[in-house]
Amino acid sequence: MSFIKKYIIKFLFGVLHSDAYKKYKQQQNNEWGKNHFKTFGKQSGLPDIFWIKNPQYISIGDNFSSLFNLRLEAWDHFQGKTFQPEIRIGNNVNFNSDVHIGAIDKIIIGNNVLMASRIYISDHYHGNISAEDLNTVPAERPLSSKGPVVIEDNVWIGEGVCILPGVTIGENSIIGANSVVNKSFPRNSVIAGIPARLIKTLEK
After folding, report:
1. Is 126 labeled as catalytic in the residue annotation?
2. Which of 36, 77, 124, 126 is the catalytic position?
3. pTM for the full model?
4. Rounded mean pLDDT for each run of 10 residues along the chain, 204 residues in total
5. What is the rounded distance in angstroms from the CA atom of residue 160 to the CA atom of residue 192?
């Protein structure tokens, strides 16, 4: 590689990793959010890398932040069926990296919720877990929901957590790392495990 090519590559690398470029990229992403989401609150920001499906069904409150690989999906059509999805994220919500949220019904995340990395939240399944589904490959099975997912205010969700359809997590609750949550828990719960179970109830 010639000296000039090395210089150009080094220069471009420096530009792409500079604070000025990062600030510019952040501004571009935030403008996209303001122009595409149903609502996009004050002082909210999108990460460098994100994938959003149907942002018109997604509301984001004030002071939202997320690290890279944010994935929000609101499915209004699949395999000939029509849905009315809604994803609503409150104020002062912080996501770490690789958070994946998918809705065909409704997912509500309250205020002051903190999420670690590699978290999956869904209000639907591929198919109905029946013998009849075996006649169709998984990717082509119809989507079905057992109800909305509601995460109330001040909830802390640990690394690698999976929250399944029809679940409500009460306010002030804590979910331990790598838990699979397939039922609802009341406020002030500390839960963990596969499937998640109540470890203790917090008292003020």
Report:
1. yes
2. 126
3. 0.85
4. 58 51 58 88 92 96 95 94 97 97 98 98 87 82 92 98 98 98 98 98 86
5. 11
